Amino acid sequence: MQTASRSATPASALRSAWRSSSLSLPSPPHTARRATAVLLSQRRALSLSQTSRPQLNAASHQQQQKLHAAPLFSKQTARNASSSSSSEALDKTPLYDLHLAHGAKMVPFGGFHMPVLYSGLSVSASHVFTREHSSIFDVSHMVQRLFTGAGAAAFLQRVTPSGAEALEPHRSTLSTLLQADGSGGIVDDTIITRLPDIHGCAQFYVVTNAACRDKDDAYFAAEMDKWNAEAGHETLQVEQEQLNGWGLVALQGPEAEAVLDHILDHTAKTDLKQLLFGQSLYSQVKLGHMRVSSPLLISRGGYTGEDGFEISIPASETVAVTEALLTAGPEKVQLAGLGARDSLRLEAGMCLYGHDLNDATTPAEAGLSWIIPKERRSADAGFYGADVIAKQLSPKSKGGSGVQTRRIGLIVDGAPAREGAEIVSRADGSAKIGTVTSGCPSPTLGKNIAMGYIQDGFHKAGTEVDVLVRGRPRKAVVTKMPFVPTKYWKGIAPA
Amino acid sequence: MASIARCLRSARPSGFSSLVKSSVSRPIAIRSFSVTSTNAIRKYTKEHEWIDLSADNKTGVIGISEYAAKALGDVVFVELPEASKKVKAGDAIGAVESVKSAADINAPISCKITAVNVLLEEKPGTINQVPEDDSHGGGWIAKVQVDEEGVKDLEALMDPEAYAEFTAAEGEGEDH
């Protein structure tokens, strides 16, 4: 059965109305365009608003105190003010009712009502559960985009440093949208997945942050207009669709494979062991009562550092698929919210846009040069800011410009250092040398972890610095990330 | 400063109050009296600190409310006040940190810190277990010396009943 009987919320049903008819068509994913849109997803989900990040010199000491002492979720709520009236404008994911039924505490986030934690499981308990078993995260608030057309790959190679043309079908890459002004600054971070060609035409599934939705929409609209109007691009047009209202569910943790395998429709002989980190496939899943889902794009990866999957699901099936995953039982899988997602991604050393990345950060400064393929590290690579970034990738000693500041990890003694805390030199009269952009007590390590930006020269692992927490210096050590080793599934190691 | 109240407003989502209500079977303030010396008067701030003032109005004990402790989640670090420091009402004297947030502890009244609960350095989770217990082994934060100004400051604070109403109303305001 292609059409799940469980309906989503009225709001999401409305939003996805255009899709419901096509869902009833039992088309194989690689022949029907809409069904192909049953995609994969990516990491990150938390992105807060485009909130001001404390700039190095902008905030007074007191303001900084305020910022770093502010709780994680204050930034999101700030955007929606403290009154409940503003929440009327918030959207709901297809899982909204399911969250409430499971005792979720909802917060405004990226324009949606999102669960931050569930009753009976604190943020740290949920965090630990994810590392030991598995958790389901609703990341449907993220923006799922589909780029198609003969020019899609070349277009993506202009707006990102990724090698879209060389990307194989069902392979994903972390990427960044780059400022059109050539500064190299990051508009948003994203996961790009190439899907199988349709009628000889390339397709890319691109997931961007919810908090950047408006900004990214404007960016893509302007860039596509520009691209499509350029001379020579008559046969290299690019189109975009957004899968608004679709569900996106992340299943993360060491038991994720077993939990997913339990509901896979094995008539297609899908073997999850063959699906490695960064790869994706289409599969139907069993929904109970003899029903199966439509073909869902399932990708291996996530935003926790654990093995896991992200599943893109039509709105009408999102609840049923999530409930099917939960049938594995509460000892294997639990729902988890934004709270645990944030501490998990921080342990995994992953960036949160609006905090660890912003319009002024370049991939080189952010320690993301690994996302740029070797053949695209030259000034003439053709993406926005290629010249700036290419220079930064090469140190001054080798003729480049290097970077002034770079993203690093810290382990902080005593008090947790939060966003906005100043990093100061221990040697050089307490001169300010950087700023913390994310930080929390690590439930896995029992230490305070943080990431931030530090002056070039202080960035080497083992460098001892101080971090000011509520005005008091705390000892901190620059530490390699991830803080907790990642456990991605990369296949069975050769004996 | 990011007071506890501010942290709660932001950490506490629309459904937060239902969590508190469902997980606490009785009004918080009533329970909290049971661990307080019968001679003391317990008052609460809108920022969710409590203070017990001794019968002679000379000394007091400060802590954070059970309502706040629940809302903050698992407390993993407590920054204790500086002993012998003189503070005014509303001054930040310390902080409580959970995985998801950090909140300042503000002085409920003008006072001088005379002792701090060093147990919390070893066992910050005590704040979650017995936040309103001012005895040995409890989750109290600091002991203070109070002068006339401090006693006067006390007038602005809420008694347990008023605080229970205050937190209930705060919760409802957030509900949908």
UniProtKB/TrEMBL annotation, chain A:
**What is the name of this protein?**
Aminomethyltransferase
Q: Which SUPFAM superfamilies match?
A: Aminomethyltransferase beta-barrel domain, Folate-binding domain
Reactions catalysed:
N(6)-[(R)-S(8)-aminomethyldihydrolipoyl]-L-lysyl-[protein] + (6S)-5,6,7,8-tetrahydrofolate = N(6)-[(R)-dihydrolipoyl]-L-lysyl-[protein] + (6R)-5,10-methylene-5,6,7,8-tetrahydrofolate + NH4(+)
Q: Where is this chain compositionally biased, Low complexity type?
A: 10-25
Domain Aminomethyltransferase C-terminal: start-end pairs: 406-484
PANTHER family (UniProt xref): AMINOMETHYLTRANSFERASE, AMINOMETHYLTRANSFERASE, MITOCHONDRIAL
InterPro entries for the chain = GcvT, GcvT/YgfZ/DmdA, GcvT/YgfZ_C, GcvT_C, GCVT_N, TrmE/GcvT-like
Q: Report the principal subcellular site.
A: mitochondrion
From TrEMBL, chain B:
Q: Where is the Lipoyl-binding domain?
A: 59-145
Please state the span of the N-terminal signal peptide per the UniProt entry: none
- InterPro entries registered for this protein in UniProt: Biotin_lipoyl, GCV_H, GCV_H/Fam206, GCV_H_sub, Single_hybrid_motif
Q: How is the cofactor bound?
A: Binds 1 lipoyl cofactor covalently.
Keywords from the UniProt entry: Lipoyl, Mitochondrion, Transit peptide
Q: Which Pfam families match?
A: GCV_H
Q: By its UniProt entry, which SUPFAM superfamilies does this protein fall under?
A: Single hybrid motif (SSF51230)
**Does the keyword Mitochondrion belong to this entry?**
yes
Needed co-factor(s): (R)-lipoate
Q: Where in the cell is it found?
A: Mitochondrion
Any one of the GO BP annotations: protein lipoylation
Q: Could you give one GO CC term from the UniProt record?
A: glycine cleavage complex
Specify where it is mainly localized: mitochondrion
Q: Which PANTHER family match?
A: GLYCINE CLEAVAGE SYSTEM H PROTEIN, GLYCINE CLEAVAGE SYSTEM H PROTEIN-RELATED
Assembly: The glycine cleavage system is composed of four proteins: P, T, L and H.
The record's function comment reads:
The H protein shuttles the methylamine group of glycine from the P protein to the T protein.
Which family does the record assign?
Answer: Belongs to the GcvH family.
Please give the name of this protein.
Answer: Glycine cleavage system H protein
Native source organism of the sequence = Cercophora scortea
Upper lineage is: Eukaryota, Fungi, Dikarya, Ascomycota, Pezizomycotina
